[in-house]
Amino acid sequence: MTPRPRMLVLDDYEGRVASSPAMARLRDLAEVTVLDRPLAGPDLAGLADVRVLLAIRERTRLDGELFDRLPRVELVLQTGGHAYHLDEAAASARGIVVALGRRARMASAAVPELTFGLMIAVLRRIHPLASELSRGAWPLAVGGTLACRTLGILGLGRHGRPVARIGAAFGMRVIAWDRGRRAAGGPGGDPPVERLPLDDLLARSDVVSIHLRLSPESRGLLDVGRLARMRPGAVLVNTARGAIVDEDALVEALRSGQLGGAGLDVFAAEPLPAASPLRGLPNVVLTPHIGWKVDEVFREFAEIAADQLAAWLDGRLPADEVVAPAAVLVPRERLGGLAPRQDGAARGETLAPPRRPSGR
């Protein structure tokens, strides 16, 4: 009988993975240790036999130094669809398979919902007005609606498409820029969206909402020049990645009145430094990277991890859910494996080698 592997759940600060219904399945499959705080050096002394890591988003850097301290790790279950914190080369060189939770769907509801929460909070000045009321005042205030404004979406993908649908439901005119996309409309009943060059979108939008992946091309995309091209008084909302925006330039645009406001859930450095000038701007609403952090998302993360761990131990983890499937070809002892490739026989290839190669 295959022994149960030891699994370490990293960074469950909120305790939502530990308390999720799927945790019972995970404990049936593995001996589970849950960390509700950042991984520290003293922890590693008792974790040398860990075979599986369950990583919650990007809270711990997964690099060669960590893998050397956890030499028996063979599988990383990475929640969410990205692994910006992963040293892929270090994992692959050690034969560590990294499975992504790309099939997760609830974040595609949670992030767009927060996007519009930030838009409304900025346009209606909800935060400063609520603060004044709590101090006993009854302030005079005039805000603005979303209806009849132009919403410019950067990135019409998994989150951008729902934002387009919601924007249309609010009565907004929706335009979009998306690198490499040419289709005029979206699937599944999405409203038709006019595609524009980036500079044209910035000049026409009353609200710009960012839904791009972080990449070398998107890093610093909204720099001094592009922020200056935005319509005077426009609002910027970022629930994607902080590094897509030049924060120093953004602060100056907000201070000068070039931009009317910003709703920011993500920042170049997280946690946001206490001395960041963004904290003191009256026309900014800030949230601490909570776009994905709802109970439903944590439950889904745990369910996907349980499915993937069961599939791995049964030698049938789908290769299309893995960052670098060829990592499984590195000879080493493993308790699990990937599903055999259906097209491998024609090329003499396989991605399901023996789990305990001879001579090791």
The proportion of strand residues reads: 5-15%
Q: Helix proportion of residues, in percent?
A: 25-40%
Computed structural class: alpha/beta
What general form does the structure show? elongated
SSE order in H/E notation?
EHEHEHEHEHHEHEEHEHEHEEHH
Number of separate helices: 12
Q: What Rg, in angstroms, do the CA atoms define?
A: 23 Å
CATH class of the largest domain: Alpha Beta
Describe the structure.
With 360 residues, the chain is an alpha/beta fold. The protein folds into 2 domains: 6-105 and 294-347, NAD(P)-binding Rossmann-like Domain (Rossmann fold); 107-286, Rossmann fold. Helix content is 29%, strand content 15%. The chain has 12 helices and 12 strands. Strands 8-7-6-9-10-11-12 form a 7-stranded parallel sheet, with helices on both faces. Strand 9 (207-210), helix 9 (224-229) and strand 10 form a beta-alpha-beta unit. Helix 1 (23-29) packs parallel to helix 11. It starts with 5 loop residues before the first strand and ends in a 13-residue tail after the last helix. Mean pLDDT is 92; it is low at 182-187, 345-350 and 354-360.
In short:
The protein has 360 residues and is α/β, with parallel strands linked by helices.
Supply database-style keywords.
seven-stranded parallel beta sheet, Rossmann fold, 12 helices, 29% helix, 12 strands, alpha/beta, 2 domains, 360 residues
